[in-house]
Amino acid sequence: MTMANWENFLKNLGEWQGSFTRMSPQGEVLSQTPSILTLEGLEDNKLVKFRLRRYDNPDYQDPPTQDYSQDYRSLGRQIIFFGTGAFSKGPWQLAPFSEFGAEFGFVDGDRRMRFVQLYDKELSLASLTFIREFRRGSNAQERPTLTVEQLLGTWHCQVYTGYPDWREPEVSGMEIILEQTGDMVEQRITVEGKTSVTQGKVIGNQINFLGSHPSNVLLLPDGASSCTPDRLQLGQPFFGEVGWLVRPNKRQRLIRYYDNRGAWTHSAFVVEYRQ
């Protein structure tokens, strides 16, 4: 474990009140569970005590239905924390006949947003868990539901790429231009002078991007988005992505990449500013 990864983890300290919302792959709400998550730093922040309480009622008055605690003095190598406290966590390897999932987390002031994408043993997207958290005692608010219009325009991006060996993240630049005509959108991504273009169709609360690696971007409450394949295939590279519009002209994204052997290769934290 590097000190930088631990210091970035500490940016999540606090008592966070929120809820776990379980959704279908199409974004339909299946259940909602109020929660209080506490991350407390002790021993000069060399020890972090984790406690998660789940409740039946949103007033948090009744005893919790679940109360789980764990102590952390180090972090597993399958998790990378970036400079804001944002993190990407998941297995090293995609394995046949076993469930597969990845968690993505963001921190912005008195807000946290976390998201879990879970696949079943047949490698089909089974469910999504959307976790919206607010620092207890603050007046932090939930953001509006993300719309296509909020994503249009020219975005200048800083990309921080982290690797499983926890070396210092690499920093690079990228430009994204998203334009809409009718129910179609065009996305132009320019990296190091090379531009790729993809087309997508807006269907309800989704943007379905076509091409050699089709993907669906699900537009969600609180300015969030989830992009992941409906089904994983052994022998094919893939990625999972979650985004969060934290300001009208500032967006953050986390992406976790796997290669054609199903091995986790790297994660990216993208900070985007619209002109």
UniProtKB/TrEMBL annotation:
Domain Biogenesis factor required for ATP synthase 1-like C-terminal per the UniProt entry, residue ranges: 142-274
InterPro entries linked to this entry: BFA1-like_C, BFA1-like_DUF3598, Calycin
Where does the DUF3598 domain lie?
4-137
Protein name as catalogued = DUF3598 family protein
Q: Which organism is it from?
A: Synechocystis salina LEGE 00031
